[in-house]
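@channel anyone free to eyeball this complex?
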Amino acid sequence: MQHLRRLHFGLVMILIFVLGGVAMAQDGEFVLAERIQEKIASGEPLTIYVSYHDVSNEFAPFIRAGVEQAAEELGVDAQFVGPVGADADAQVAELETLLETADGIAISSVSTDALAPIIDRALEAGVPVVTFNTDNPESNRLAFAGQDLVQSGREAGELMADVLGGEGQVIITTLDAAAQWSIDRETGAREALANYPGIEVVTTVNTGTEPQQIYASIENAMLANPEVDGILSLECCSTPAAGEFVQRNNLLDSVKVVGFDLLPATIELVQSGAVAATIDQAPERQGFEAVNMLVMFLGGEPVSNVDTGVGIYTQENIADVAEASS
Amino acid sequence: MAQPPIIELHGITKRFPGVLALDNVSFSVYPGEVHAVLGENGAGKSTLMNILAGDLQPDSGTIVYQGREQVIPSPLVAQRLGISVVYQELALCNNLTVAENISLSLVANRSALSFVRRGQFADHAREVMKRLGLSNVDPRQSVGKLSVAQQQMVEIAKALSMKATVLILDEPNSALTIEETDHLFTVLRQLQADGVAIIYVSHRLEEVVQIADRITVMRDGRHIDTKPNDDSVTVESLITKMVGRSITHFRRHARPSGGESQPALEVEQLRSGSIRGVSFRIHRGEIVGIAGLPDSGKDELVECIFGLRPSEGAVRVNGVVAPIKSPVAAINAGLALIPADRRGAGAMLVMSVEENTVVSSLKAVSRLGMLRRPAMRDLTRTYVKKLDTRIASQRQKMWTLSGGNQQKVILGRGLATEPSILLLHEPTRGIDVGAKAEIYDILQRLAKDGVTILIVSSELPELISQCDRILVMHQGRLTGHFDHDEANEEAILACAMGQATHRAVAQT
Amino acid sequence: MANLGVADTPRTTSGGQGRIRRALSAREAGVFVALILMCAFLAVSTDAFLSSRNLLNVGRQISLLGIMAVGMTFVLIAAEVDLSVGSTYALSGLMTGILIVQQWALLPAILVGLALGGLVGFLNGVLSTYGKLPSFITTLGMMSIVRGVALLITNGEPVTVNASSGANGDTLSQFFWIGQGSLFGQIPMQLVFFIVIAFLGWIVLSFTTFGFRVYAVGGGLKAARVSGIKVFSVKIWAFIIMGVLSGLAGILSLAFLPSGQAGRTGVGLELDVIAATIVGGASLSGGEGTMLGTILGVLIIGVLRNGLILLGISPFWQTTIIGLVIIVAVAIDKWTTSRRAG
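replying in thread with the prediction:
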């Protein structure tokens, strides 16, 4: 065993030399790049990039708002970047370009595998990296700010069981069943529902991302499974579609919808009762914390994971949000 | 011919669904002879050549090659045996160089992973090209940049590089100029002297009479005759054999010239690109031909007149200045064009006979933008009947017709616009001799009915037999002007090559 | 021997033979039989398929795809292709949505959306003709440009058309009636739109001189030009029709689900539209295709999607099977055609 470990260590050393990456200390501890140290010393404003996995999706504006708020309050130059459409290659390519000028990077990964190498490369080059919204556990990122996805899935499962009174058939809808965030939330949701013997998860419906397609998938799935009592949506976008379906077909009493996020359409559907409950993931806060963590780290303070938490909204408390948003 | 034959065909029969393409065909080919195979489209020549090349298998009959009975299951086997085919539609890779194309066969037989030495290609190609007298072609040039004639030579060089003992030329010269054809013949003579047997499939009877040692005629899938090419063979006798009847309308009808009336088409100082000022007049009911070598500008001229190509100068139709900037304007002015590239610019192959006929006359077959199907049918029927077009149905797709019938449909399309002037560009290129005669007959009848006709053609015999007057172009200018009675090939050629002029200025 | 036998065929007059065969070409007949077989199979193997609710659902689900496929039929027959339709769908719909939220009256808001679609089509057409660029390239570029413009005008935020977003109540109810209402209390309005557009498309393509010119331009560009057809103008109009119909579909989409988002709405739709049209018999090389074929192609795709879900087949298999159907449909046609060409 001892031999093996030594051999392993040797290999790593060789690799590090071959790759020319020598900024990383031997025990894996992060060393800040000299140019950044100088910049901090000189008091120049820091340049921070917040790379979101799809700047064209509905959360991007909220996260960007959080980033902008942080930039103003904390006095840094924080920029919101990322690919149009969830495109791992484009996200990696953009980060490669920005690496030279960044004093800190916050990343929400399109794909864990695709982004982990560039995160580690940035760290080796002495640029601090945190993750937000969607974590990247494969990498050596310094910390994560966001919702614990498995936990939020559990919360959704509990809510579903609650509105169904512990009995019924449930379908789960997601716009990308193969994505890591979806798998995590589904795991949590199924875990929670498994505690209720009266509840059966019939199937998971992969709706795709196009709005008409999402609605049609739900419509078809409901027709194929007429006994369903609950629709558990794992994200922003099949939530209002499921609510619309229930509302239009006058199924408010027989089919309960539990979903995620607070899109305007979702807020309205919660008000009307078509969506029984929705879980907010506070995207502004995620954007804010992403910047804040980096500023703290660069200021020499220790950082650890920040759970941005879950906010649960039902017909009773949705009025707060509705007022705030209008 | 003391040697034994290199190929003997015995009772070759080939049947396709609905048609007997080859019916018990037997003849022999000897080493060192140029053996012409003649026949109309559909006579079975191409099927026979495809069988020799290994593309098709006969239903019955045997092929004896170099004294041994031989099955030719694939083109690759044919090549190994020494039978090479130069197809009408050239099968070269335009993106590769001359040398690479010639050496393609060397590569084709190797395993995919073997290394390719380009230097070896060039040496090999140079050797073969030297043998063909192809000194003016750079082996490193890409084939796409060569002229059609040069490409043809590269095809032949490619065939020779496979050590061909039998060379099949399928319509080798339909796109070649007179000079280029002469060069081809020189090369063929040389190969013949080396003992190569040459099977020469062609429509151009004058040339066949000139080059062939023996001539085989086929008709309706049957072997009609194989005879030495001696003094008794004439173009007329060959035609009679090919068609099975004698063609009487090959000659122009005598017609009084309409010299005094107002000209129907006047072209004055037309300039465009290589055309450097051309003027002429054509009277109503006259048939005028324009001859010239491929780079003379005659092809551009007809496109300018029809508005397909921008030009300067004046065009007057029946005395009225017609600003022809587009084909639409040309058609409105009373012109119709039968284009040279039948498959590309003439026929819409995926569409029906009916659709192809009415496409230029949509106004006549519609009301308020809505098509009137009965009118479309009637108009088509009129011209099918008038031109004696052989079709099974008006809804038949154009690609299912023979070249001659396609050309008749296109001619019908032009006539359906009731033009006062008909422009024909290479009207009988690639069309068999029977259909050719019919088209000539139609043109003469149209002229008699008062249609003014301009024919631009590379086939001098066609112009000489059909036209009242022939204009000759050389380097963008008119260099010759012949009346029907004084026109002959030698004099026209001399003008076309810029070695003489003939009444070039005095044009009425 | 390209002319094998045909030149020798004895002349026959074109009589009234094969009226049905003429109405339904070989390709359409094949697609029709496939559709019937699929429906029969689904009727037997699932309870839900034949229910009137499901059939109306299928009808509604294919409508937007179908409206765009009508436009694509014109473009493909003219030997062009349009990849920008999904983006145009998003832009037009979102634009109309924004205007309604800003309290515009319904008709002007819709007309602006349609005009925007027409403008995109016009640009596609001009670049692909006078601009001498292949339409694959122009519309690929346009796909990205239009998507970008849609993101810019919405700032990436979802456009939600409802009372709380500030839209006029009457306008809203009219708008929603267009998207969500139904005729005779049964037939969804989207389906009504599809039926009307398909009928008009059929009339224009099969019975007008414009339709004829579209076929001619695709059947042989040079030949059409020599025959006196303004080939560029015909192509540009085909693109404009496509653009306007994409816009219409986008507007109907927003009227159905009153929330759209520029990053997702209509993404990937162009491929579905092209696939449906091609399954219906239109050829990418132009000159071939019919409106009836396109409608059958759209139905095949719609019934297939619906059926696979009713049968409870895994979503990953669904994607795979739809791909297979596209290839098989075109392959069968090509193979049989080349045999006919001999």
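from a first look: Residues 1-82+189-247 of chain B form a domain with the Rossmann fold fold (CATH 3.40.50.300).
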